[in-house]
Amino acid sequence: MDILYKIFIDPFVQMGLAPDLFAQTLWEGLVGGMLYALIALGFVLIFKASGVFNFAQGIMVVFAALTLVGLHEKGVPAFLALALTIVVMFLLAVAVERAVLRPLVNQPDIILFMATFGLTYFLIGLGELVFGGDPKVMIADQLYLPKGAIDIKMLGGFVSLQKIDIAAAIIASIMVVTLGVFFQKTRIGRALRAVADSHKAALSVGISLEQIWIVVWFTAGIVALATGIMWGARSNVSFALEIIALKALPVLILGGFTSIPGAIVGGLIIGIGEKVGEFYWGPLLGSGIESWLAYMIALIFLLFRPQGLFGERIIERI
Amino acid sequence: MFYREAGQFKTTYQADQAVFPIRQDRIGVLLILGLLFVVIPLTVSSFVLSSVLIPIMVYALAAIGLNLLTGYTGLLSLGTGGFMGVGAYACYKLTTFFPEVNIIVLILASGLVSAAVGAVFGLPSLRIKGFYLAVATLAAQFFLSWCFVRVPWLYNYNVSSAIEVPTRAVFGIPVTGPNASAVTRYFVVLTILVAMTWVASNLVRGRIGRMWMAVRDMDIAAELIGIKLYQTKLLAFAISSFYCGVAGAMMIFLWFGSAEAESFSIVQSFLVLFMVIIGGLGSLIGSFFGAIFILGLPIVLRTLPEYFGLAIRAATVEHLQFMITGALIIVFLIIEPHGLARLWQIGKQKLRVWPFPY
User: Fold this and answer.
1) CA distance B310 to chain A (A)
2) pLDDT 10s digits, B59-99
3) What is the ipTM of this complex?
4) Nearest CA in chain A to B339
5) b/e map of B1-13 (b: 16 or more CB within 10 Å)?
6) DSSP element (H, E) containing A149
7) Which residue of B has its CA nearest to A105?
8) What does the alpha-carbon distance between residue A177 and residue A175 come to, in Å, rounded to a whole number?
């Protein structure tokens, strides 16, 4: 009985008794979830347009952030470094298209998946070779990102919101809206959706796959850069960040591999679920359940919807 | 010319169904076995035995396990490291409970524990497939690694939260622990590996293997011809985990000597997956090639600069090693997406028709 009480009643009592703490936990989960959602967004973009499960997305986040900070350390002004990093991400997109996607076109998914592993290794080596492997501090001040916290008085206590988190939320929303408009309204966006639907049909109406792939990988690179800046401002920039890519995977299966809204909603569910679970139920199991809780949440969802929350319905033919 | 089966007539079904139907293959395998069992232990130093050959054999077994699942049944798994860990920790607990029992029996028994765990984590495969399943198996990986850290019962409440391999002897010869000689350990690993490879090769040629391959090629069609999907998939998970578990137990008991939870992190899962894909999906010999390639590559890359007398800092070498490994993986996939096993097949075919081009 006691254990049932601890699982089913006690956490909710705690939530009710200290609503400010609960609100704080929710907010932290929300911010964490947003960053997962951004990484998942990069995955979804690439998966939709080229059918590649891009394992290198996480390392692209680190690589972008590292390039930005590394360039600044070498004496380049902050905003010039930002521009140069964008150029580097573009070159990366071109290089990936030339060296990886084009020779491997029409191969089974698992082979392309494996190739992105190769890319991951390559980028880790390159990043460390050029910029060194030590953790670096994100140049948040130079980019005029706010710091400090706002304390809001509510629910009989204080909830403290980091300004950088608010900025991250705003930037993430802007980016999602921009991407949405880009996909729905522009010519390239339409071409992108066509490619996502069917490579062959898109080719037959004269859409250049190569061009689309470059655009998609470049967009994913920009998303990676934004994620890298936000995440780097919260902790340091180092290859330890790579692990966050693994955190984004449950977001993907939850939201569906092909859905941008799915990535966002999935990210928020995972982020909040993870923080709340860790805070209220974690002590029961010994701490650290954050590492697998997200996967369990995603698995439970999957048992009911195998294609994810927003994924396209899987229709199988023989 | 030298490798041609002309004139070898098969007069029985047994001969037709043999593992190695061609005489040259049989001779070749006998030669390799002779080399492994007699020549290498006599000539190779114990350092090379324990730091090159034993690792390759342990990983080859794990790669065979994953290949049964991913290559033959088409279920992508990223939980290999976790299942190897289950084998290792199970073996540790079993030696604690049954100190008298032969350690080799215990290593195989720990594979059974791993198989049970694998079957449980295979349950989602009934509903989901492809990359969704791969991510779901990551749940197994992270949950198991968490258990290895947070459940003190698994490591007998050691303060260091690591497991130390006790000394166990078989017929009076120490096999595990600090007193076991490299040659003994080599023989044990080699024997288990050869036996289990033989079992696997018969599995995949038989009814079970054909069921697996039918499921891999198209599961709905397989279901329509009367294959029970969930039994087949769970069996694949169980047997694959059995192999991985035995590999994990051997890794700790016959190679490392001690282990922490970190030894079975996600890195292991990826490493074994590399081996399977580079070696060739759906090929047992490919698993060996993959293990040799992935483990041999760093050794070669490390020794090359010294060989040419280049003075490069160790850190730079490590970074370059990462870059070269990554680039080589991509290059290999471009040259031969079906892996090293396919190159081997092409080579054999060339030998067969030599000196003619085809």
Assistant:
1) 17
2) 999 999 999 999 999 888 888 999 999 999 999 999 888 88
3) 0.82
4) A111
5) eebeeeeeeeeee
6) strand A149-154
7) B334
8) 5
Q: Which phi and psi (to 5°) does residue B2 adopt?
A: -85, -20
CA distance A160 to chain B (A): 31
Phi-psi sector, B241: left (phi>0), alpha (psi -120 to 50), beta: alpha
d(CA B324, nearest CA chain A) in Å: 7
Give the whole-angstrom CA distance, residue B336 versus residue B278: 9
Both tokens of A207, joined, read 């859409």
- Is residue B288 within 8 A of residue B279, CB to CB? The reply is yes
B147 and A CB contact within 8 Å: no
Say which amino acid occupies A14: Q
Q: How many residues does chain A have?
A: 318
Asked if B314 has any chain A CB less than 8 Å from its own CB, the reply is no
Query: Which residue type, as a one-letter code, is found at position A150?
Result: I
Residue B288 CA to residue B202 CA, distance in Å, equals 17
Q: Tell me whether residues A111 and B327 touch, CB distance under 8 A.
A: no
**pTM strictly above 0.90:** no
Residue A121's pLDDT band, with cuts at 50, 70 and 90, is: confident
Question: B152 touching A, CB under 8 A?
Answer: no
Token couple for A30: 């929300």
Residues B126 and B236: beta-carbon distance below 8 Å: no
**B154 token code pair:** 């698994």
